[in-house]
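Notes to self after the call with IL:
- keep both proteins in one doc
- input above output, always
- annotate only the second one for now

Protein 1:
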Amino acid sequence: MTMISRFPYKQLILLFFLSSVAGCSTVKGLFGGDEDEEPTITEDRTASQLYQKANGEMQSNRFSEAIESYTLLESRYPFGKYAQQAQLELIYLYYRQSNMDNAISSADRFIKLNPQHPHVDYAYYMKGLANFDKSKTFLNLVLPRNPSDKDPAPLAASFEIFKNLIQKFPDSDYADDAKQRMIYLRNELAEHELTVAEYYMRRGAYVAAANRAKYVMEKYQGAPSMPQAVYTLELAYRQLGINDLAYDTHKIYVANFLGDDGSLLDPTYATTRISCATNVWDRVLEKLRLRTYYCD
């Protein structure tokens, strides 16, 4: 049995415009006669005829009709190759309709029912993709993004699903694209965690800020915001009076984040947003913008 994917696996698109789905269709070409004129559904239609009708509707971008036909096919003939293919097609169709919840649940169902299927990696990939796009809207493409404004849960889920896909199926046609998406997700999630850490720093919740910074350092190695994570952890330790850990963290910063000229990277992105004033009067002066207390 031969299955040919319509997804252009090896042509990675820009991560910031990953909303395009024109090439994400499921594997096709399983059965002959796909291009024939689609038959009308009657009570005595065979699984093959139902599949041809549903496939014709999908090829014509009549997605709602295709969903209805594939669902009918699966309910009438719940076992065998046609039912499995219908399940795969439904994942794709729900995704194309931006019904991410149904796409995710359909992928979960396929994985549970067909764990050894030769194309179960596709179900994992589409599940990750649906979570990846779950919080995206058209405005994300035209307005400046702020990772802290997003619900990180779908992004974190997508990261773990792609990670699982790569571990289970390292030779999958979808592995390379999953790796690229993981890089983007890692960076987004790290920024979100550090935004929360800065919020805690501004409110004096230094233990919570330290925990967030440490989580980024442990979970998202390689993210561009890693210097900020280390620096925020150092600031939190200083505010807590844990000077030995603050010193050790500073050494990590010095050892890993030097500029091209050998100087420390400018940490003003943190110092301009986190107060290191040591008493109430200094905080008042800083609040009035009469003085700034940098964390040296």
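Protein 2 (the one to annotate):
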Amino acid sequence: MDYKNAGSARPRKPARKTGLAWMGFRLLVLVLATMSAHLYAQNPSLGAPTTLEYGEIVVGAGGGTITTDAATGAITSTSNVFPTNALATSSARIVATGRSGRSFTIYTTLGGNFTMTRSGGGGSFSSSPGPINSENPVTNTFTFPASGTVTFHLAGTLSIPGGLAAGDYNGTLPIFIRDSTNRSSNTVSVPIHIRLIAPLTLTNNADLDMGTVVPGATAGTVTLNPGTGVQTKAGGVVFASASGTPAAFAVTGAPSHSISISLGGGTTTLTGPSGTMTLTLSSSVTSPTTLSAGGVANFAVGGVVGIAANQPDGNYVGTLTVTVAYP
């Protein structure tokens, strides 16, 4: 036996295996270091905003302003702007994402006015965005919580001139946020919408005439149906001439829009040479009613008048107050 070579076989060194393990450890350290650096340098970001909705309004000749509250979506307006309840208002909702503990402030990229354009063409107007109005209206500054996500709402004021064509007007307000490390987010465009509708006009085409009657020894009533024009009596009164006629009205406004009709307090006083009578009013249409596709509605007003026993002779006159409005 060759003792020189016996048991002299040397095991292989795991150089390749050791080298791979070290490389894997190094790669892991590099990946962790990169991820840590990425998180620290994270820029804030903004998600897609919902629409800033100013609703539906009527604008008077002088124009005016309308303001949406960021927290509630409620609106306030000046005297020449008249909101309806046909279209719900809302502030824009935006989700911001960023580094926990950092604060951020809202900015716009606009250097001046933005434009609201009528759908289908035929009109536009420019408006200053005014101060950006969020739930924190003084500073418009928020702080990212531990989740790294903040939901805020945006609103503001529109300045609307008079004389614009009715229609849906749309615009956008570009905004971004900048955090406390001076890192800026992407810019998103907040959609803005408002609907302008035609003002209502009311025309009195005929006065209300309850006819001529002879009072009796007992009290009575005279009724004039506003829809048919048919006149009836009850109690101790007698017709002395042809039937009376209902008052006739025509109203024009926004096509197919709902309107309300008010007959004052529902009654009016008729005053004669020596006495009065009470006329209880009624309309030929129920309120609210709807304008036609051409934006027109016609209605009549009649009622019931109470006549006392031996009511003094004479002409009894009064005032009929009719008001139409968008709900």
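Annotation: The chain has two domains: 45-196, 201-325. Residues 45-196 form a domain with the Immunoglobulin-like fold (CATH 2.60.40).
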